[in-house]
Amino acid sequence: MKYYGLIGRHLSHSYSRMIHTEMGCKDYLHTELEPEELGAFFKEQEIGGMNVTIPYKKDVLPYLDIISPDAEEIGCVNTIVTDDHGKLVGHNTDADGFLWMAENAGIEMGGKKVLIFGGGGAQLAVRRAAKVAGAREIITVSRSGENNYSNLDRHYDAEVIVNATPVGMYPEPEGQIVDLDLFPECEGVLDLIYNPFRTNLLIQAENKGIPYANGLSMLVAQARRAEEYFKGESIDECEIKRIMSIIAGNTRNIVLVGMPGSGKSTAGRELARLSGKEIIDTDDEIVKSVGMSIPEIFEKGGEALFRQYEKEAIKKACESFGKIIITGGGAVKTEDNYLPLKRCGRVYHLERDASTLSRNGRPLSQNADLEEMYRQRLPLYQRFRDAVIEVSADAEETAEKIWRDFCENSCN
Ligand code: NAP
After folding, report:
1. What does DSSP say about strands 279-281 and 324-326: parallel, antiparallel, or unpaired?
2. Does any domain span residue 241?
3. Which atom of ligand 1 has the smallest separation from the CA of 169?
4. CA of 148, closest atom in ligand 1
5. Are residues 120 and 268 in the same domain?
6. What domain count does the chain have?
7. Is residue 245 assigned to a domain?
8. How far, in Å, from the CA of 184 to the mean position of ligand 1?
């Protein structure tokens, strides 16, 4: 039986099998190999179509008969097929994937100055793509290169910024490779990272109104190109978006923010039923981890102590994938909660007329002027939210509105 699959050293987090299976490659395998096993693999397997990932993209070159121009220029291979004459042919589909990523985001590289951060393998594919797209100038910024982080002012006129470093990637999502304020002419930001869904760099681009994209589109688009090599026929572009939606829908969190008593918990429960996703209620997590009720925390240390516990609970919740995260009404008052929530999920503001908000069991709502609280907090909810959902009297209806939006926009 011919081998279809992916080889690499550590593959437990790879989406390749899921993507290729969705594209119709039913027998796609993940094969973890140690370096000394590579030779035996090529000797024993009859290769139908395979992908190659870290750390073997260069190591496979000696086993190939033909190397495509893309792979030749990029200097490594991520796809191998056997041609009609029985020869092993190596391709690199990352440049194709990156081109699709930029086009899909509406980011034009033709005639532009493209500034790429990172001097690793992925950067070579980005350079190739930028060249194919007709970029006017392509500069790589590398810590040890001529263009480095101490002379970025040379490139204040960059129009397209690309992050091809792991800076900002899970499990260290707090990093940001560069401050976009340095590039006043920037028209597009492309980050090869797809976990978290929005890196800090992309959140900054979004806040500046600059078009951007994460690396999920590149990941799926390069796999589609590879699958086309396997099959020898073209695969509809719609497949890329369909598979992106499946991955984002499964891995991205749904975050609920809104006034105390606006119905986040009841809508969240209905949403869990509808979506099959688990709930993380950050107030419940605080009570569990501290061993005190919320009124007891307020009695002990006031709102400041509660907000500290809340910040820790939100940070932890944001390390999850594919969950419903229900936040307390005042979570938006803590600036430190902004980036973790935006990175990990699509944020829904549950909006409800202040006169109908429930006060039960909420220390800060008991005697408060809720209309005044709403006026103060509204700009914060507006800043945090990706979408606003008008809360209905029926929680099921509210949940359906959120779920419909999420199914349509999990990639946005
Ligand atoms: P890599 O070789 O591990 O890193 C790329 C380069 O990033 C390094 O050579 C280094 O360049 C720079 N770098 C690393 N750590 C840094 C730090 N702390 N500060 C500043 N620069 C740092 O990875 P790669 O294979 O080229 O991939 C780069 C990124 O793209 C990774 O996050 C990877 O997951 C992602 N990727 C995504 C796709 C996709 O389909 N979406 C495909 C390929 C790769 P210098 O030493 O020259 O500064």
Report:
1. parallel
2. no
3. 32
4. 48
5. no
6. 3
7. no
8. 25
**pLDDT in the model for residue 187:** 98
Q: Of the listed 2, 26, 43, 57, which one is catalytic?
A: 57
Tokens of 56: 């073997």
What radius of gyration do the chain's Cα atoms show?
24
**Residue-by-residue DSSP string for 87-151:** -EEEE--HHHHHHHHHHHTT---TTSEEEEE--SHHHHHHHHHHHHTT-SEEEEE-TTSSS-TT-
Residue 246 resides in a domain: no
Spacing, Cα 374 to ligand 1 middle (Å): 44
Q: Average model confidence (pLDDT) for the chain?
A: 95
State yes or no: pLDDT of 224 exceeds 60.
yes
One domain for residues 344 and 283: yes
Asked if residue 7 belongs to a domain, the reply is yes
Residues with CB under 6 A from ligand 1: 94, 97, 118-123, 142-144, 164-167, 169, 192-194, 215, 218-219, 222
What is the extent of the structural domain holding 53? 3-92+224-233
Q: What is the pLDDT of residues 107-146, one digit of tens each?
A: 999 999 999 999 998 999 999 999 999 999 999 999 999 9
Domain check: are 170 and 36 in the same one?
no
To the nearest 10°, the Cα dihedral for 31, 36, 37, 40?
Answer: 150
57 is catalytic: yes
Which of 57, 165, 190, 214 to mutate for ligand 1's pocket (most ligand atoms within 8 Å of CB)?
Answer: 165
Whether residue 387 sits in one domain with residue 285: yes
- Which value, to the nearest 10 degrees, does the dihedral of the CA atoms of residues 9, 12, 18, 20 take? 0
Q: What is the pLDDT of residue 207?
A: 98
Confidence of residue 64 (pLDDT cuts 50, 70, 90): very high
Distance 380 CA to ligand 1 centre (A): 34
